[in-house]
Amino acid sequence: ELKVEQNPLFLSMQEGKNYTIYCNYSTTSDRLYWYRQDPGKSLESLFVLLSNGAVKQEGRLMASLDTKARLSTLHITAAVHDLSATYFCAVAGNAGNMLTFGGGTRLMVKP
Amino acid sequence: DTAVSQTPKYLVTQMGNDKSIKCEQNLGHDTMYWYKQDSKKFLKIMFSYNNKELIINETVPNRFSPKSPDKAHLNLHINSLELGDSAVYFCASSPISSGNGEQYFGPGTRLTVT
Fold first, then answer.
1. CB nearest B48 (choices: A43, A44, A97)
2. Residue A19 in contact with residue A60, Cβ under 8 Å?
3. Which helix (H) or strand (E) holds A104?
4. pLDDT in tens, B12-50
5. Cα-based distances in Å from B106 to A43, A44, B24, B54
6. How does strand B10-13 pair with strand B4-7?
7. d(Cα A45, Cα A10) in Å, to the nearest integer?
8. A111 alpha carbon, distance to own chain's centre
9. Among B55, B9, B13, B12, which Cα is nearest to B32's?
10. CA gyration radius for chain A?
11. What residue in B sits closest to A51 (Cα-Cα)?
12. Are the Cβ atoms of B45 and A98 closer than 8 angstroms?
């Protein structure tokens, strides 16, 4: 059974600081996704990582994938308040492309 | 135009009732999904469905059943609702035969069982 663990589950940080969210998964997969969810809203796709060593960047967020270590990271650079949200990583299993989600990281960026 | 839509947005009902949530996608995707998000924000896959295959997460009670009248729709029917079914249900779709498998999510349906 595929298991996905994120840490930390809660992160409070000051504006301007850097931090990294970690996503570990238990079985082989070469497809990993990062989503953002604002309170009461749906999930917004941030990054699609499809191969070992993949790195994607969008604004202050950068995601990477190490399939050998079964690890993905989401790095936040110079955080701003607008980044406050819950971030989920999700790993695709073999059956029907069903996603197994991590527990989510609730990020609060304080002025 | 909304890519993945769900109705209703909110659903309040009593234990023991039967209810349905509708999902439609206009993206031309060939696979659709249902996810459940509980009060602690944990997201869990319930079903994956394309025109050839239904895959059911083994932890989903058989009171839940997906029904697909056509490729663009995947409705979720729930029998004999229980308090523990209260959650937000998200529909999603993705292209499997082409693309990177990225899933696009609907706005969610908040189900409250009293």
1. A97
2. no
3. none
4. 999 999 999 999 999 999 899 999 999 999 999 999 998
5. 8, 10, 9, 20
6. unpaired
7. 20
8. 23
9. B55
10. 13
11. B100
12. yes
Contact A34, A88 (CB under 8 A): yes
Task: Say how many residues make up chain B.
Answer: 114
Helices (H) and strands (E) in chain B, counts: 0, 11
The residue behind tokens 């947005």 is B9
pLDDT tens digit sequence for B41-98: 999 999 999 877 888 887 899 999 999 988 899 999 999 999 999 999 999 999 876 6
**CA-wise closest residue to B106 among B20, B7, B39:** B7
Question: Which residue is associated with the tokens 């699609």?
Answer: A48
Cα distance between residue B42 and residue A68, in whole Å: 26
**Contact criterion met (CB below 8 Å) for B76 and B63:** no
Peptide bond into B8 cis (omega under 30): yes
Per the rule left: phi > 0, alpha: psi between -120 and 50, beta: everything else, A78 is left
Q: Contact B48/A95, CB-based, under 8 Å?
A: yes
CB contact under 8 A, A96 and B53: yes
